[in-house]
Every structure is written in structure tokens, then in C-alpha cells.
Amino acid sequence: xTKAASPVGTVHLVGAGPGDPDLLTLRAARLxxxxxxxxxxxxxxxxxxxxxxxxxxxVSVAKSRSRHTLKQEEINALLVREALAGRDVVRxxxxxxxxxxxxxxxxxxxxxAGVPVTxxxxxxxxxxxxxxxxxxxxxxxxxxxxxxxxxxxxxLTEQDWSGLAGKGRTLVIYMGVATAExxxxxxxxxxxxxxxxxxxxxxxTRPDMRVLRAPLAGLAALVAGExxxxxxxxxxxxxxxxxxIELRQLALEAGA
Length: 256
Ligand code: SAH
Hints:
Layout: E1 11-15, H1 26-34, E2 37-40, H2 46-49, E3 57-60, H3 72-84, E4 89-93, H4 103-112, E5 117-120, H5 125-133, E6 143-150, E7 168-174, H6 180-189, E8 197-202, E9 210-215, H7 219-225, E10 232-236, H8 244-253
Parallel strand pairs: 1-4, 1-5, 2-3, 2-4, 6-7
Antiparallel strand pairs: 7-10, 8-9, 8-10
The protein binds S-adenosyl-L-homocysteine.
S-adenosyl-L-homocysteine binds near residues 95 and 232.
């Protein structure tokens, strides 16, 4: 007995990495090149979208803090609608789909509608930025705990970040540019030393990337003075103060 091919398309939740097209996974590159429909958010670099078939339909669902073109529910509905109409969809997201990417919500929406989903991991901004700026997220001599937090969420002051930053730890803050001042105040109020080193990495892995350094107490002045713009990450901890040579020396001292 033969069964008719399923008329339902598949949604691929695909991580596009931090910007540089060379940092796509092979699977992501293959899916992008073969896609008939790509639904992408604003962080996806034009150089990556240029890898799509010229005949492909590209739908931008770019979001920004102040301007929402499509609400998340509408994005979910769009993915489900297209898949139920029999089309495969490449849902392309900056970084990794499951790190502050709302990939979990899209996965749930597809599952609830009976739409098959695959997930293709991407290099998250923290990993891309750390590599590009040569700031190791962990280091035997400096840090053995890494935390990723979102700096933009409502109720920043109510979030419990205690213990996430400090000696032996690295704190990576996504979406923290607009709230940089509140972030520094919050961490200092939690007991973190105002001189704790940090780096701000703007547009990591892109040709115009900037890496800026300051002590924690100088974060707001740095962001304002250098006119730091999103997308940028804030990396807080001892690792942010070290360069490659210092790190090698420290590793030797630690007996690595
Ligand atoms: N899913 C993405 C994160 C989306 S949230 C990931 O895994 O990377 C958006 C935030 O990611 C931005 O506000 C910024 O903090 C960070 N970000 C994304 N791309 C970046 C880049 N190239 N350089 C620095 N930060 C970046």
C-alpha cells in the first residue's frame, strides 16, 4: 500500500550565527541555498541572505525595541500557515535559535499545529564575539562559570543575577546596550566591585566590529561616549581584561 506524500511542509529553525557568513554551519548554508521561502529576522546579515536562491521568497520579520513589524504570535502563525500549505520554511535567526531567539515558542507553535520541525544550531553571539575579540569565556586561571543573561527584559531590577558575576565567573549580557546604566547599577548594588573589568563587543564578527573595555563603573559612560549601538554584547569578568599573552602566562602559572 502506498501512502500519499505528506502535504505538510517542514519548518527548519536555523541559526545564522553572529554575522560572518563563514560562521554558518554547513547544514545552515545548504538549507539557505535550497530554500524556496526564508523567514528571517533583522539580525541576519545581508551577506548571508545573499546565499539564497535569487528566486526564493524572503520575508523579513525584523523586530526592534521600539518597532515591531510582526508580533511573535503573527510570526508563529505565518510559519504554521506556510507549512500547512505544503511549503518548507527556513526560519533564519541570528546566532542560535534557542539562545534568546524565541525558537522555543516557534517550536511549540509548530508542534501544536502538527507541523514537523528541525532545529539547526548556530554560533551564538557570545561564542562569536568571544572568538573574534579573543576573550576566552572560561580560563583555568580566571573563570570556570559562564552565564548568559538578557539585559532588556522587563523588570530588570527584579531579576536575580546574584552570584552570576564576580571572581571566577564570566557574565555575558545580551541586549544590554539600552539598559547599560541600570545593569551596572544593579550589579554594583548586588556587591560586584565597581572596578570589575568588562568588554563591550559591538557587531562581533562583522567587518566594522568594535571591542571596547572599561571597569564596571564606567559602563554607562563608555556606551554613551562611544555611541555603542545594538547588536552588542557586554562581557563582565576577569577574562575581559586579559589579552592572549597574559592568558598564556596565567595558564603557565596555573600549571596548565
Ligand atoms: N539568538 C541570538 C541572540 C538574539 S538576541 C544569538 O544566539 O546570538 C539579540 C542580541 O544578541 C543583541 O541585542 C546582541 O546583544 C546579541 N548579538 C547578536 N549578534 C551580535 C553580534 N554580531 N555582535 C554582538 N552582539 C550580538
